[in-house]
Design a protein that fits this description.
Blueprint lengths: L1 H14 L2 H14 L8 H25 L2 H25 L8 H12 L3 H14 L11 H23 L9 H10 L1 H15 L3 H34 L5 H28 L3 H12 L6 H8 L5 H32 L2
């Protein structure tokens, strides 16, 4: 009961925070039939700015950190991403009306990472005064890329077996290269490299950091509008996708929270780091994942996996997941 009461209190507070408020506001105006649109060029610029800010800070922090303290969290992030895909590969196709390739693509998208959810969590933790290692956001690609690659490989294996045992080879190098060239991961990795190899403190403090919260509010508004528009697409496929999108993000986050707790005991991984690990595990890719899976699993129905992710998965990860893991951390770590 204490957990539910604390969760309700935290959730009520988060509704008033800019991140969740703008997300809900976008869904509201879309539901009212508003023609409000944010140009795609502005959306891409906002995403770039947010990821550059996250990457720069992570790079600067990695430069000062001991590599040994980062290795286990990196391994944990990769294992979580792959585990999410493998579990989804086994369970989703068993559900009525779910085709194998659609299920694998959905699992891949939920195993990958959402930049918007990560950015929202960073703002929440800073507002709550919860400390975390600044390099934790750099775990993003280590969970994202393995999840997408594994999903595409599993779909390829299924497709080959379905085509009379055709033994065509899967282009692993091409998959990795395409993932690394994706706009989201490219921006994040660029920021990390610049933070590591240069001294960007002045431009970070005067430009990227002050704009972070305002740009995040724009991104949340865009995601809210798109989430509502995707609901109609999701209604055209099996309802199990909606149920998966409601439940899976929270289960994925709890899995990562548990693993993060073990890292805390073993290495001193901070409670804030545990929360962020849970948040990125609960998130589902909304930028780099969809185009990667469209190209890598062309036989899958985008209305199924993108609809489940954007319409339900992202709002759940932000609106319920972040307050849930913050509340758990308060109970477990006493922060």
């Amino acid at each position: 009961m204490d957990l539910l009461a604390n969760l309700a209190t935290t959730f009520a507070a988060q509704i008033q925070s800019p991140a969740l408020a703008f997300l809900l506001g976008g869904m509201l105006v879309a539901a009212m039939g508003s023609r409000l649109e944010i140009p795609d060029a502005i959306y891409k610029f906002v995403v770039f700015m947010l990821l550059m800010r996250i990457g720069l800070e992570a790079g600067m922090e990695i430069k000062e950190a001991e590599l040994a303290s980062i290795l286990l969290p990196v391994l944990a992030a990769a294992l979580i991403g792959c585990a999410i895909v493998l579990v989804g590969r086994v369970t989703l196709p068993l559900l009525p009306g779910v085709k194998m390739e659609d299920g694998i693509a959905t699992a891949g998208l939920f195993g990958a990472v959402s930049a918007s959810t990560l950015a929202a969590a960073l703002v929440v933790l800073e507002a709550e005064g919860v400390a975390f290692e600044a390099w934790v956001p750099a775990l993003y690609p280590f969970m994202d890329i393995p999840a997408l690659i594994l999903a595409i490989v599993l779909a390829g294996v299924h497709r080959q077996r379905s085509e009379n045992g055709d033994r065509g080879e899967t282009g692993y190098r091409e998959i990795i290269a395409d993932s690394l060239r994706g706009s989201a991961i490219s921006a994040l990795l660029l920021g990390i490299v610049l933070g590591l190899l240069t001294h960007p403190e002045s431009v970070f403090d005067s430009f990227y950091d002050p704009l972070f919260r305002g740009l995040l509010s724009i991104l949340m508004l865009v995601l809210g509008i798109e989430a509502w528009s995707r609901l109609s697409e999701l209604s055209g496929v099996a309802h199990w996708y909606a149920i998966y999108a409601l439940v899976a993000p929270l289960l994925h986050g709890l899995l990562a929270f548990g693993l993060g707790y073990l890292l805390h005991v073993a290495t001193g991984f901070s409670p804030g780091g545990v929360i962020l690990l849970a948040v990125i595990a609960a998130s589902n890719s909304d930028i780099s994942g969809p185009p990667t899976l469209r190209a890598g699993i062309p036989g899958a129905n985008p209305s199924a996996y993108i609809g489940a992710s954007t319409a339900i998965g992202t709002p759940i990860a932000i609106g319920v997941g972040i307050p849930l893991y913050l509340t758990l951390a308060q109970l477990v770590f006493g922060i």
